[in-house]
Amino acid sequence: MTDTLIPFDDVLKDFDPALGLEVHVELNTATKMFCGCPTEFGAEPNSQVCPTCLGLPGAMPVVNGKAVESAMRIGLALNCTIAEWCRFARKNYFYPDMPKNFQTSQYDEPIAFEGYLDVDVDGETFRVEIERAHMEEDTGKTTHIGGATGRIHGADHSLVDYNRAGIPLIEIVTKPITGTGAKAPLVAKAYVAALRELILALGVSDARMEQGSMRCDVNLSLAPAGSGVLGTRTETKNVNSLRSVERAVRFEMGRHAGVLLGGGKVLQETRHFHEDTGSTSPGREKSDAEDYRYFPEPDLVPIAPSREWVEQLRTTLPEPPAERRARLQADWGFSDLEMRDAAASGALSLIEETVAAGAPPQAARKWWLSELARRANDLGVDLTDVGVTPAQVAEVQKLVDAGTVNDKLARQVFEGLYAGEGSPAEIVAARGLAVVSDDGALSAAVDAAIAANPDVADKIRDGKVAAAGALIGAVMKEMRGQADAGRVRELILEKLS
Length: 497
Description:
Blueprint: H1 8-14, E1 15-26, H2 65-77, E2 81-82, E3 89-92, E4 102-105, E5 112-121, E6 124-137, E7 141-145, E8 157-161, E9 168-174, H3 184-202, E10 214-224, E11 234-239, H4 242-261, E12 269-274, E13 279-285, E14 295-296, H5 307-314, H6 321-332, H7 336-344, H8 348-356, H9 361-369, H10 371-379, H11 390-401, H12 407-418, H13 424-431, H14 439-452, H15 454-461, H16 468-478, H17 485-496
Parallel strand pairs: 11-12
Antiparallel strand pairs: 1-9, 1-10, 2-5, 3-4, 3-14, 5-6, 6-9, 7-8, 10-11, 12-13
Helix pairs in contact: 3-4, 8-9, 8-11, 9-10, 11-12, 14-16, 14-17, 16-17
């Protein structure tokens, strides 16, 4: 059955959207939430398991203290109240991704609650209220083999990897986000982006959405415009990119409106998001809390963090990302667009370290967002994994500033750094990349270029100085890009004036 989609602008004529965002963050602890198994990503399937995370009889869980600390720091950074006493619960359901047939989570007593995060969209600030941030464990990964959709329906068989089962998770749940109107998709995207930036600043997770260490469930409902009520919601599960969060909201707004304007009722259900089309498809009818038969976990003691511990953790919080961006932008003199691009690329810290190592801010930004960004894209890795350090980037720029190399030659220096050929200065020496500024060699190359391009030379003699660019290009080509372009221009004009 094909969904009827109402154009976005038409949706807003009749309906008010309400958002609810549930973000799951895998913590970067060395071991799992309730056992000592490692949490390394990409290990051989089912190689990081033990009787506890497999739910074998007699195995007893123990709470990971580092995970509790990380949960409290996240709560504090989100302006939440940290519980004086809380406990875990069993969330019961039958599905093969959790071998013990329940997930250890928190139900009515979360570690952190009643917070907020402010986000900016096109100069307008929206306060997203946080209902709760609670601790739980991740589930295993199920892969369905055969069939056309990759889902369980129609599959020949399924494979389950329990390495991920038991990894510490923090689930951050917003209150209904209303009053966003046409900006609803952008507010959703901005909130997840701001939350990811905060998580990275805290250092509690790598927050790699493409690897699943940060995932967003997008709840959306529509209500008649001006009614002030909440409609029936759907929950689009495991959306794994910022762009997809925005697209999921847009699609569901159009789909909900199509159902409602067609006289139907929106079904409360989970939905699957499809990256290729930006659409969603039905998952399962959404369960309510009572369907999970929550009850307190009998094998774990309650958690009662002292107020002294909470206040000590508050002192470890980093500078809020928005304040940091404003400070750096003022220090560096970047435009709003330049700062936005630097932040979106994940290069802020790298630029900051490069500037601290002695490079001008604009030069640091240029290298990280051009040459090094291209390499990261080619390799399919983050900027931090391109094989070049901020100190090396600063050293390359110092060679440019000194006139030892130009920008074109500097790119060859980076190639040498990728290959591990030594320091930038050693690479320049070994590869013979230094700019030629000797007037004798340059003068001979200029004479040859003039002789080979008499028409261009005549234009310059007639006062058309801009034509000198063609002769400069010829000299640079002849000298493999190693000529001092400024000095070449001076010589050309001296000879043809």
